[in-house]
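To whoever picks this up:

The nightly regression suite flagged HTH tetR-type domain-containing protein as changed. Nothing in the input moved, so I suspect the structure step. Input below, exactly as stored in the fixture:
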Amino acid sequence: MAKSIDETKLERIKQATIEMVVTKGYGGASVSSIAKKAQVADGYLYRHFPSKKALVQFLYGSHIDQFRQMVYEIMESNNSFDTIIFEFNKAIYEMTNENPSKAMFINMLMNDYTFLMSKDMRLRIPESFDKLLERGQKSGEVDPNLSLEEFTSVFPAISIEYASSRVKKIFSEEKLTEEDARKVTNLCMKALRP
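Regenerated output under the current build:
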């Protein structure tokens, strides 16, 4: 008889992984430390994920998919490129206020050279942003000569880095606001315009 999956244990594993990566870095977070924090046996974790790499890639990939879906939904309901950027920033900042560790997890992995994304993940990331770049270039709001790599180094990178600096309380201890989303949108738009 197959063993049942305890969803609460899996959620604890996911949250423990995020917290361990945030506090110890990708290299410092071990399967044992994640399992201990999640209050499960190492073997239970290995039953669902063959390695730390697979677990972290799964979590990072699910966040990337969530961002992609968010971009598609915002693009469907908004015509203006800067409104799309603003709505995305607003949603990211609401998520950051609700779950600061999640924002830090994404930012840390974006900047951790020891964490290697799977080939599938590397292919999925540009997909949604390519459509967004194309829309901005067609509307004349984005420099037509901007490459996808240049575009993503501005958006969403600046938006996520801004959220991360707020979580770290580097410049402010205030929660992220709609006004912050507007300021970062204006910053992104200045960098992207022709």
